[in-house]
Structures are given as C-alpha cells and as structure tokens.
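Appendix B.2, paired examples.
Example (i):
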Amino acid sequence: PAAGDSDILADLENTELGSPNIEPGSQEDLVVNVGDRVFFKYDSAELDGDAKELLQDQVAWIKQHNVSITIEGHCDERGTREYNLALGEKRAQAVKNYITSLGIDSSQVSTISFGKERPAVVGSNDGAWSQNRRSVTTVN
C-alpha cells in the first residue's frame, strides 16, 4: 500500500461486513430495514395493497422502537399549489389513519403536507410523477 493507505487498510480489515453502524430506531434504520415511503396513484389518497403491506412493517418497527413519527404528504407537480397541499394532507392522513388502526397511538403521529413543493425526483414525466406521489415517514 502507498504511504497512508495502511491505516485505511487496517480499518477495512477490522470492519465487520454486512453490519453497518446504523443506530436502532433512527431514520436510517427505518429506511434500510423497512422503507420510509408509500406511493399513490394519480389524484388519489387511497392506500393500495403494497402500501398497506409496507405500513404494517412500519407499525411493527415503530412499536419495537417506541418512536414518534411525522408523516409527510407529497404530490407531483400537476395541479395548483392549494390543491396539492390539500391532497398531500389527505395522503398523510390516510397513512396516519391506517397505522393508528393497527395500534399506533395517535399521539405518536403528526402529519404535514408539502404538496408539490418537495419533489423526490425532478422531471415532468410519468417516472418522476410516480415517485413524487408519496408519503414519507420520518422519525422525530
């Protein structure tokens, strides 16, 4: 190894593979082990089967770590700002209603709508729009 590389090499040799240093109960833990978002069809706040399955996993994770969360509602760029803020709120509320029906205390869950203001993917096409129609669960 070149000068200075020996320290890097020593660190790599002493690092366990497959066990990154993720703090249990953190946002990173949620993202890596469960997933933090569900997606919605155009102009809809209805949870489909995939969304419900992921949210059931989130509920188990939230119960295990006893954390409070915020559910963010997001929309694609189409429609007015006001319309998308309202739709984002409906999406966040749909997620909250579902997870509280599965036993999460409503005092652990807050909601916020960002409408179309915080796209995950920039673009004016179906691929971008489908990624932006979402709710994101964040650990407080």
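Example (ii):
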Amino acid sequence: MPAPFDPARLLEVLGRHDVEFVLIGGLAGALHGSPAATNDADICPARTPDNLSHLAAALVELRARIRTETEPDGLAFDRSPEFPAVVELLNTTTTAGDLDISFVPTGTGGYDDLAERAVPFDVDDTRVLVASLDDVIHSKRTAGRAKDRATLPVLEALRDELRGGARLT
C-alpha cells in the first residue's frame, strides 16, 4: 500500500543527502501559492556523478520503488548511482509518498536551465530550489496533458496576481 504523501519528509531526506535539484510540478506551484492540490513531488536533479550518488542514497533511504498501476507497492529497481544516469524519467513511490524524477522536464533544458531562474523556499528546516512560476507554467503548457491544462488557468491567474495586475484577454 502506498505511503501517505509527506512532502516535508521527502524534501528533508533529499536535502540531508545533499541532492541538488529543482522542485517542479504541482508542489512547486503550491509553494508559489497555487491552491491546486497535488499528491506527489516532482524534481529535476542535476546529473553530475556526485549528485547521482547523493540521489541514489536518498532513494535507498526512502525505499523508492517504481510506481505502477498494477503493483500498489511498486516494483524494485536498481537504486545505484548508475541507474539514474541512463534514464530520463523515474516515477517512484517511497515511504514518504510519490516522487517523480525528471532529468529534462518538458519545455526545459534540465537542471541548469531551471536552476538559474529558481526561487529558494524554506520547507520546514529544508532549503529547496523551486522552479519559477513561469517555468512551471511553460512546462505544463508544453506537456499538454489534460491534468496540466486543467491547472494552467489557476497558475496563470496566480502569476498575474503576483505581478500586480490582471491580464486582459
């Protein structure tokens, strides 16, 4: 049975293992102020050898497993640093809820691209780089999935509000 979503714990474990990443997706939107609900965390980690080792250690501690619809507890996978080096996307379930890892999120150039515009947030006692709201919106628009299209009006309204004015259409 999947564990309840505990984003503070997920982020704390990643931080304690010194994983360099940018938080993306719905949780990033929520930290910017979006009321849209999310039930997972999405990250874009740096793909350096050292960082892949840090990420692997965090995945071991979180007992990460590949998330599938047919196996509620997920499937075992190689959590060594070499495995993330050869994949683009990992959808996992962990002891702190679902964690999706995307090395090059749709519409972005990956970690370095996102990190230069990312905004630091404190989540409990963990400092987290969060994708800019513009990057979250752009990635969701580019991905074009129904669930992403559904949240775009909320995210765009939030962006307009944060910029101090309503957008005229």
